[in-house]
């Protein structure tokens, strides 16, 4: 690897080699810095923590199974009731939510022959009571 030459034509040509020595020096300096600082980053205070055995207190929201049959009859968790009684139960659940309770999940099951009017009335009664978590339950299509 010659840096100087007596040949005038080759001396003006650009050098096509990379000098690796400075790159290796920088890499070794960075390696030393990382070796020195790595143990400082993993420093931890040793504590003797108390042990406790408990179950997490998970509050599950109420689940209301609300069904509408083909005749338009309403069922609250399997119990038949009128629209006024259903609206009163929705209002009671809404008052519990307003008092700080969990928002109940309403699983609405409607027969395919049910008039949409009955479904819309049920949704309106629930929304009027302040209940927002309403899910429509259906069966998967058979193939």
Count of alpha and pi helical runs: 4
Which H/E pattern describes the elements? Answer: HHEEEHEHE
Uncertain residue segments: none
Please state the second-level CATH architecture of the domain at 63-137.
2-Layer Sandwich
Determine Rg (CA atoms, Å). Answer: 38 Å
SS content category = alpha/beta
CATH overall fold name of the domain at 63-137:
Nucleotidyltransferase, domain 5
Total number of strands: 5
Query: For the record, what CATH class of the domain at 63-137 applies?
Result: Alpha Beta
Shape: elongated
Distance between the amino and carboxyl termini: 78 Å
Report the biggest beta sheet as strand number plus sense, adding barrel if it closes. 5 strands, mixed
Helix content: 25-40%
| Mean of pLDDT | 84
Share in β-strands: 15-25%
